[in-house]
Amino acid sequence: MHPILERSGRLALYLGLWVLVGGLLTLLLAGRTGLTGLRAALIALPVASAYAFVCLSSWYVARSLPILTTTLTRILITGAVAATLSSAVWVALSRAWIGWLVRHGWLPEAARSSGHESLIFAVGILLYLLSLAISYVLLSFERTREAERRALEVQVLAREAELRSLRAQIDPHFLFNCLHSISALTTVNPAAARRMCLLLGDFLRETVALGAEARITVARELKLVERFLEVERIRFGDRLDVEITASSDAEPCVIPPLLLQPIVENAVTHGIAHLLERGTIRIAATRTPARLSILIENPCDADRPRGTGTGVGLANVRARLRTLYGTEASVSATEQEGQWRVDVSFPATTKS
Questions:
Q1: Exposure letters 253-262 (e unless 16+ CB within 10 A, then b)
Q2: What is the SS3 assignment for 340?
Q3: Do residues 98 and 116 lie in contact, with contact meaning Cβ atoms separated by under 8 Å?
Q4: pLDDT in tens, 202-254
Q5: Nearest Cα residue to 260 out of 331, 328, 180
Q6: For residue 8, what pLDDT is reported?
Q7: Structural contact between residues 112 and 98, judged by C-beta atoms closer than 8 angstroms
Q8: Residues 6+ apart with CB under 8 A from 242
Q9: Overall pTM > 0.85
């Protein structure tokens, strides 16, 4: 369907412009034929309205001859032929309309031969060619918008693919650490290794359910973190304490699933694992009106061995947040007075 006919507002604006064309044609007819302004308007306004619909065909001519793939000669010849035929149709319509007005006494008999046809024919050609030019301009805008829409779709698909890739890195990294821990426990505490396997199975069952979800609530994410730390408690016993808090306005906010998983793993692997005494991992989620902040803090040994990890943890979190929020997200990690602190901050959103 023609884009002007798709919406009543567009059609009303289009016909309004042609009323102005009818007004100009009225002045030309009055000056050329000597008719009064009222009689010239009786001819010009109806025939201009009729020609408005004839000129809609220029859109289909422009679409059938794309300016990027059609020679200029062919466009000019086709446009000239279409303008001539359309203008001839307009002259025939005006002749029929004037004849009707004469028969019903609205115009004198002399109006039939007042020399209006040559004027209408010339104006008709100019108006059709103008409509054709405007159609090409509108088609160019349409192609530009379509190209922008496709580019945006490609960008979104690329971001989704990157997110899936980053998320896929979490499970192997987590399983590697857990299986290593279970392997170590099988010789010193088989019962604990068995319990760790069961808890690991429950945790993985919950994470499988997240496969189709792009976002989960902070409350649900913290429950998953708590489940993971239950698995690690089998390994560390009383050496591992956990404090998890979230403000009431932060819990409904949504975040990428398992976003905190690599950070908490690091807190255990590179923090608690190197302590001889008891250590506490603290996680706190708070919200300002526009931003969500999550703090993960754990004690660490200043003399612990450095550079033993695979580098997946914080890099994964930063990459996921950068892909989702760009420069609006931040992840900072600092060590001070025996405490390792990770601050994660990004725009606060809730499920619609």
A1: bbbbbbbbbb
A2: strand
A3: yes
A4: 877 777 666 567 788 999 999 989 988 888 888 788 889 999 999 999 999 99
A5: 331
A6: 87
A7: yes
A8: 226, 229, 280, 281, 283
A9: no
Q: What span, in angstroms and rounded, lies between the C-alpha atoms of 229 and 135?
A: 65
54-78 mean pLDDT? 90
Which top CATH class is 169-347?
Answer: alpha beta
Task: Order across the sheet with 279-287: list the strands.
Answer: 240-246, 279-287, 291-299, 339-347, 330-336
Tell how many helices (H) and how many strands (E) occur in the chain: 11, 7
C-alpha 199, offset from chain centre: 40
Per-residue pLDDT reduced to its tens digit, 188-201: 888 888 888 888 88
**Are 90 and 50 in contact, with CB atoms under 8 Å apart?**
yes
| Tokens 């794309």 belong to residue | 66
What letter would DSSP give residue 97? H
Contact 101, 107 (CB under 8 A): yes
Which pair of tokens denotes residue 178? 């857990």
At which residue do the structure tokens 């945790």 appear?
203
Please check whether residue 255 is in contact with residue 222, taking contact to mean a CB–CB distance below 8 angstroms: no
- Write the DSSP string, 121-144: HHHHHHHHHHHHHHHHHHHHHHHH
pLDDT-based confidence at 33, cuts 50/70/90? confident
Domain locations along the chain: 3-158, 169-347
264/281 Cα distance (integer angstroms): 8
Q: Indicate the Cα dihedral angle 186, 188, 192, 196, nearest 10°.
A: -40
Residues forming beta bridges with residue 283, ordered by sequence position:
244, 296
Three-state secondary structure call for residue 176: helix
221-231 burial, b for 16+ CB within 10 Å, e for fewer?
bbebbebbbbb
**What is the DSSP secondary structure assignment for residue 295, as one 8-state letter?**
E
Lowest mean pLDDT among 22-26, 28-32, 111-115, 254-258: 111-115
Q: How far is CA 93 from CA 52, 54, 77, 107, in A?
A: 12, 11, 24, 16
293 in helix, strand or coil?
strand
